[in-house]
User: Fold this.
Amino acid sequence: MLTLFHFDQGILQQTPVEGRLEALPPQTVWVDIVGPTADDAAAMLRLLSVEIPTHEEMQEIEASSRLYEDGGALVMTMPVLTRAMTDEPEAAAVTFILAGDRLITVRYVDPLPFSMFVRRLARQPALVANGATALVGLLEQIADRLADVLESATADLEAISRDIFRKESVRGGDYLKDILQRIGRAGDLATKAKDSLLGLNRLMLFLGAQTGVRKEIKQRMKTVMRDANSIAEHATFLSTKVAFLLDATLGMINIEQNNVIKILTVASVAFLPPTLIASLYGMNFELMPELHWRWGYPMAVGLMLLSALVPFLYFRRKKWL
Assistant:
Protein backbone atom coordinates (compact mmCIF):
# COMPACT_ATOMS: atom_id res chain seq x y z
CA MET A 1 0.00 0.00 0.00
CA LEU A 2 1.29 3.42 -0.97
CA THR A 3 0.21 6.64 0.82
CA LEU A 4 1.11 10.19 -0.24
CA PHE A 5 1.37 13.12 2.17
CA HIS A 6 1.25 16.41 0.27
CA PHE A 7 0.14 19.98 0.68
CA ASP A 8 -2.76 21.36 -1.31
CA GLN A 9 -3.21 25.11 -0.92
CA GLY A 10 -1.36 24.97 2.39
CA ILE A 11 -3.45 22.08 3.77
CA LEU A 12 -1.81 18.72 4.39
CA GLN A 13 -3.53 15.91 2.50
CA GLN A 14 -3.17 12.16 3.05
CA THR A 15 -3.90 10.30 -0.17
CA PRO A 16 -3.85 6.48 -0.38
CA VAL A 17 -2.92 5.23 -3.83
CA GLU A 18 -4.56 2.15 -5.29
CA GLY A 19 -3.14 0.71 -8.44
CA ARG A 20 -0.41 2.25 -10.56
CA LEU A 21 1.01 5.63 -9.51
CA GLU A 22 1.34 7.81 -12.60
CA ALA A 23 2.50 11.10 -11.04
CA LEU A 24 3.21 12.72 -7.70
CA PRO A 25 1.31 15.79 -6.52
CA PRO A 26 3.54 18.88 -6.79
CA GLN A 27 3.99 19.42 -3.03
CA THR A 28 4.50 15.81 -1.94
CA VAL A 29 6.72 15.64 1.15
CA TRP A 30 6.32 12.03 2.31
CA VAL A 31 5.68 8.78 0.46
CA ASP A 32 4.87 5.91 2.81
CA ILE A 33 5.08 2.43 1.25
CA VAL A 34 3.83 -0.59 3.22
CA GLY A 35 4.64 -3.93 1.63
CA PRO A 36 6.03 -2.50 -1.62
CA THR A 37 5.19 -4.26 -4.85
CA ALA A 38 7.12 -4.32 -8.10
CA ASP A 39 4.86 -1.52 -9.42
CA ASP A 40 5.66 0.63 -6.36
CA ALA A 41 9.40 0.12 -6.87
CA ALA A 42 9.08 0.95 -10.55
CA ALA A 43 7.08 4.12 -9.76
CA MET A 44 9.72 5.39 -7.31
CA LEU A 45 12.46 4.74 -9.84
CA ARG A 46 10.51 6.45 -12.61
CA LEU A 47 9.21 9.46 -10.66
CA LEU A 48 12.00 10.11 -8.14
CA SER A 49 14.97 8.22 -9.62
CA VAL A 50 15.18 6.27 -6.35
CA GLU A 51 15.71 2.53 -6.21
CA ILE A 52 14.09 1.17 -3.07
CA PRO A 53 15.78 -1.85 -1.44
CA THR A 54 14.17 -5.27 -1.49
CA HIS A 55 12.98 -7.00 1.67
CA GLU A 56 16.06 -9.23 1.66
CA GLU A 57 18.38 -6.22 1.31
CA MET A 58 16.65 -4.52 4.25
CA GLN A 59 17.46 -7.52 6.46
CA GLU A 60 21.23 -7.24 5.93
CA ILE A 61 23.08 -6.14 9.05
CA GLU A 62 26.31 -4.64 7.71
CA ALA A 63 26.43 -0.84 7.92
CA SER A 64 27.31 -0.42 4.24
CA SER A 65 24.03 -2.13 3.27
CA ARG A 66 21.91 -0.13 5.71
CA LEU A 67 23.39 3.36 5.41
CA TYR A 68 24.48 4.61 2.01
CA GLU A 69 23.98 7.25 -0.66
CA ASP A 70 22.37 6.33 -3.97
CA GLY A 71 22.27 8.95 -6.71
CA GLY A 72 22.02 11.85 -4.28
CA ALA A 73 19.40 10.13 -2.10
CA LEU A 74 20.24 9.00 1.43
CA VAL A 75 19.11 5.42 2.07
CA MET A 76 18.91 4.53 5.79
CA THR A 77 17.59 1.28 7.26
CA MET A 78 17.10 0.56 10.96
CA PRO A 79 15.18 -1.98 13.05
CA VAL A 80 12.00 -0.55 14.58
CA LEU A 81 10.33 -2.24 17.53
CA THR A 82 6.82 -3.45 16.76
CA ARG A 83 4.22 -5.62 18.52
CA ALA A 84 5.89 -4.63 21.78
CA MET A 85 2.84 -5.40 23.93
CA THR A 86 2.40 -8.91 22.54
CA ASP A 87 4.18 -12.14 23.50
CA GLU A 88 6.26 -11.93 20.31
CA PRO A 89 7.86 -8.47 19.99
CA GLU A 90 9.78 -7.89 16.78
CA ALA A 91 12.49 -5.49 15.63
CA ALA A 92 11.52 -5.16 11.97
CA ALA A 93 13.64 -3.36 9.38
CA VAL A 94 12.27 -0.03 8.11
CA THR A 95 14.00 1.99 5.37
CA PHE A 96 14.01 5.81 5.27
CA ILE A 97 15.02 7.40 1.97
CA LEU A 98 15.67 11.12 1.92
CA ALA A 99 15.49 12.26 -1.70
CA GLY A 100 15.83 16.02 -1.84
CA ASP A 101 12.90 17.53 0.06
CA ARG A 102 10.93 14.28 -0.01
CA LEU A 103 10.95 11.39 2.41
CA ILE A 104 10.19 7.83 1.33
CA THR A 105 9.58 5.16 3.97
CA VAL A 106 9.58 1.48 3.06
CA ARG A 107 8.27 -1.08 5.54
CA TYR A 108 6.58 -4.45 5.77
CA VAL A 109 5.11 -3.94 9.24
CA ASP A 110 2.98 -1.29 10.92
CA PRO A 111 4.89 -0.02 13.99
CA LEU A 112 2.88 2.06 16.41
CA PRO A 113 5.14 5.17 16.05
CA PHE A 114 4.04 5.55 12.42
CA SER A 115 0.33 5.62 13.21
CA MET A 116 0.97 7.91 16.20
CA PHE A 117 2.97 10.28 14.00
CA VAL A 118 0.21 10.34 11.38
CA ARG A 119 -2.35 11.23 14.07
CA ARG A 120 -0.10 14.08 15.22
CA LEU A 121 -0.01 15.46 11.68
CA ALA A 122 -3.70 16.30 11.91
CA ARG A 123 -2.84 18.81 14.66
CA GLN A 124 0.69 19.74 13.57
CA PRO A 125 1.07 19.60 9.78
CA ALA A 126 4.35 21.53 10.11
CA LEU A 127 5.94 18.25 11.27
CA VAL A 128 6.16 17.33 7.59
CA ALA A 129 7.08 20.70 6.16
CA ASN A 130 9.72 18.85 4.14
CA GLY A 131 11.32 15.43 3.95
CA ALA A 132 14.05 16.08 6.52
CA THR A 133 11.55 17.45 9.03
CA ALA A 134 9.31 14.43 8.51
CA LEU A 135 12.27 12.09 9.00
CA VAL A 136 13.36 13.67 12.27
CA GLY A 137 9.75 13.74 13.48
CA LEU A 138 9.42 10.02 12.83
CA LEU A 139 12.71 9.30 14.60
CA GLU A 140 11.56 11.35 17.59
CA GLN A 141 8.34 9.35 17.68
CA ILE A 142 10.27 6.07 17.53
CA ALA A 143 12.50 7.16 20.42
CA ASP A 144 9.45 8.20 22.48
CA ARG A 145 7.82 4.84 21.85
CA LEU A 146 10.96 2.96 22.88
CA ALA A 147 11.04 4.95 26.12
CA ASP A 148 7.39 4.06 26.82
CA VAL A 149 8.01 0.38 26.11
CA LEU A 150 11.02 0.24 28.43
CA GLU A 151 9.08 2.05 31.17
CA SER A 152 6.38 -0.60 30.89
CA ALA A 153 9.01 -3.36 30.95
CA THR A 154 10.52 -1.82 34.09
CA ALA A 155 7.14 -1.91 35.83
CA ASP A 156 6.72 -5.56 34.79
CA LEU A 157 10.13 -6.48 36.20
CA GLU A 158 9.34 -4.72 39.48
CA ALA A 159 6.15 -6.78 39.75
CA ILE A 160 8.10 -9.97 38.97
CA SER A 161 10.68 -9.07 41.63
CA ARG A 162 7.94 -8.68 44.25
CA ASP A 163 6.39 -12.00 43.22
CA ILE A 164 9.71 -13.82 43.53
CA PHE A 165 10.87 -12.47 46.87
CA ARG A 166 7.69 -12.00 48.87
CA LYS A 167 7.46 -14.40 51.82
CA GLU A 168 3.82 -15.35 51.42
CA SER A 169 4.13 -16.36 47.77
CA VAL A 170 2.99 -19.87 46.92
CA ARG A 171 5.81 -21.79 45.29
CA GLY A 172 5.18 -24.46 42.72
CA GLY A 173 6.07 -25.67 39.27
CA ASP A 174 3.37 -23.72 37.41
CA TYR A 175 4.00 -20.56 39.45
CA LEU A 176 7.75 -20.55 38.78
CA LYS A 177 7.19 -21.50 35.14
CA ASP A 178 4.97 -18.45 34.74
CA ILE A 179 7.66 -16.29 36.37
CA LEU A 180 10.28 -17.62 33.96
CA GLN A 181 8.04 -16.87 30.97
CA ARG A 182 7.46 -13.30 32.17
CA ILE A 183 11.20 -12.76 32.70
CA GLY A 184 11.94 -14.22 29.27
CA ARG A 185 9.46 -11.88 27.61
CA ALA A 186 10.91 -8.84 29.40
CA GLY A 187 14.43 -9.90 28.41
CA ASP A 188 13.41 -10.41 24.79
CA LEU A 189 11.73 -7.00 24.75
CA ALA A 190 14.80 -5.28 26.24
CA THR A 191 17.08 -6.97 23.69
CA LYS A 192 14.97 -5.91 20.73
CA ALA A 193 14.66 -2.38 22.11
CA LYS A 194 18.46 -2.17 22.39
CA ASP A 195 18.75 -3.40 18.79
CA SER A 196 16.38 -0.65 17.66
CA LEU A 197 18.28 1.97 19.68
CA LEU A 198 21.58 0.87 18.17
CA GLY A 199 20.11 1.25 14.69
CA LEU A 200 18.70 4.66 15.61
CA ASN A 201 22.09 5.89 16.82
CA ARG A 202 23.84 4.67 13.68
CA LEU A 203 21.24 6.34 11.49
CA MET A 204 21.55 9.66 13.35
CA LEU A 205 25.35 9.60 13.13
CA PHE A 206 25.16 8.91 9.40
CA LEU A 207 22.57 11.63 8.84
CA GLY A 208 24.47 14.15 10.98
CA ALA A 209 27.62 13.61 8.92
CA GLN A 210 25.87 14.83 5.74
CA THR A 211 26.74 18.37 4.72
CA GLY A 212 23.34 19.24 3.27
CA VAL A 213 21.41 18.91 6.53
CA ARG A 214 20.11 22.22 7.87
CA LYS A 215 21.21 23.55 11.26
CA GLU A 216 17.80 23.34 12.93
CA ILE A 217 17.47 19.73 11.83
CA LYS A 218 20.87 18.90 13.30
CA GLN A 219 19.83 20.49 16.60
CA ARG A 220 16.76 18.28 16.77
CA MET A 221 18.91 15.29 15.86
CA LYS A 222 21.25 16.00 18.78
CA THR A 223 18.27 15.99 21.13
CA VAL A 224 17.10 12.66 19.72
CA MET A 225 20.59 11.20 20.12
CA ARG A 226 20.77 12.31 23.75
CA ASP A 227 17.38 10.73 24.39
CA ALA A 228 18.44 7.56 22.60
CA ASN A 229 21.62 7.30 24.66
CA SER A 230 19.72 7.69 27.93
CA ILE A 231 17.15 5.11 26.81
CA ALA A 232 19.97 2.74 25.83
CA GLU A 233 21.44 3.05 29.34
CA HIS A 234 18.06 2.17 30.78
CA ALA A 235 17.81 -0.81 28.44
CA THR A 236 21.20 -1.99 29.69
CA PHE A 237 19.95 -1.69 33.27
CA LEU A 238 16.89 -3.74 32.34
CA SER A 239 19.08 -6.45 30.81
CA THR A 240 21.09 -6.61 34.03
CA LYS A 241 17.93 -6.87 36.12
CA VAL A 242 16.55 -9.57 33.85
CA ALA A 243 19.73 -11.60 34.39
CA PHE A 244 19.48 -11.11 38.17
CA LEU A 245 15.81 -12.15 38.31
CA LEU A 246 16.49 -15.12 36.08
CA ASP A 247 19.24 -16.31 38.43
CA ALA A 248 16.96 -15.74 41.42
CA THR A 249 14.12 -17.72 39.85
CA LEU A 250 16.41 -20.59 38.94
CA GLY A 251 17.69 -20.51 42.52
CA MET A 252 14.10 -20.77 43.78
CA ILE A 253 13.52 -23.72 41.48
CA ASN A 254 16.64 -25.42 42.86
CA ILE A 255 15.41 -24.81 46.42
CA GLU A 256 12.02 -26.34 45.58
CA GLN A 257 13.69 -29.34 44.00
CA ASN A 258 16.01 -29.73 46.99
CA ASN A 259 13.02 -29.65 49.34
CA VAL A 260 11.36 -32.44 47.39
CA ILE A 261 14.54 -34.50 47.38
CA LYS A 262 14.99 -33.85 51.11
CA ILE A 263 11.48 -35.04 51.93
CA LEU A 264 11.96 -38.19 49.86
CA THR A 265 15.33 -38.83 51.50
CA VAL A 266 13.96 -38.34 55.02
CA ALA A 267 11.01 -40.61 54.25
CA SER A 268 13.37 -43.28 52.93
CA VAL A 269 15.57 -43.08 56.05
CA ALA A 270 12.57 -43.07 58.40
CA PHE A 271 11.21 -46.28 56.88
CA LEU A 272 14.51 -48.14 56.89
CA PRO A 273 14.23 -49.39 60.52
CA PRO A 274 10.62 -50.68 60.10
CA THR A 275 11.70 -52.39 56.87
CA LEU A 276 14.60 -54.01 58.69
CA ILE A 277 12.33 -55.29 61.46
CA ALA A 278 9.76 -56.59 58.97
CA SER A 279 12.53 -58.31 57.04
CA LEU A 280 13.82 -60.03 60.19
CA TYR A 281 10.43 -61.45 61.06
CA GLY A 282 9.89 -62.49 57.50
CA MET A 283 12.70 -65.01 57.66
CA ASN A 284 11.71 -68.70 57.52
CA PHE A 285 13.84 -70.02 60.37
CA GLU A 286 12.51 -72.69 62.74
CA LEU A 287 14.12 -71.30 65.89
CA MET A 288 12.51 -67.86 66.20
CA PRO A 289 11.10 -67.69 69.78
CA GLU A 290 8.98 -64.61 69.03
CA LEU A 291 6.82 -66.70 66.68
CA HIS A 292 5.33 -68.51 69.67
CA TRP A 293 4.76 -65.44 71.83
CA ARG A 294 1.17 -64.43 72.43
CA TRP A 295 1.99 -60.73 72.05
CA GLY A 296 4.69 -61.23 69.40
CA TYR A 297 2.72 -59.70 66.51
CA PRO A 298 1.63 -56.54 68.39
CA MET A 299 5.18 -56.16 69.69
CA ALA A 300 6.64 -56.34 66.16
CA VAL A 301 4.13 -53.82 64.80
CA GLY A 302 4.73 -51.49 67.71
CA LEU A 303 8.47 -51.78 67.29
CA MET A 304 8.16 -50.87 63.62
CA LEU A 305 6.00 -47.83 64.45
CA LEU A 306 8.39 -46.73 67.15
CA SER A 307 11.42 -47.11 64.87
CA ALA A 308 9.69 -44.91 62.27
CA LEU A 309 8.53 -42.31 64.81
CA VAL A 310 11.93 -41.75 66.44
CA PRO A 311 13.75 -40.67 63.19
CA PHE A 312 10.75 -38.51 62.25
CA LEU A 313 10.87 -36.64 65.56
CA TYR A 314 14.63 -36.29 65.28
CA PHE A 315 14.34 -34.77 61.80
CA ARG A 316 11.64 -32.36 62.98
CA ARG A 317 13.83 -31.25 65.88
CA LYS A 318 16.69 -30.58 63.46
CA LYS A 319 14.21 -28.65 61.24
CA TRP A 320 14.96 -30.88 58.28
CA LEU A 321 11.24 -31.23 57.68
Q: What stands out?
A: The chain is about 60% helix and 15% strand.
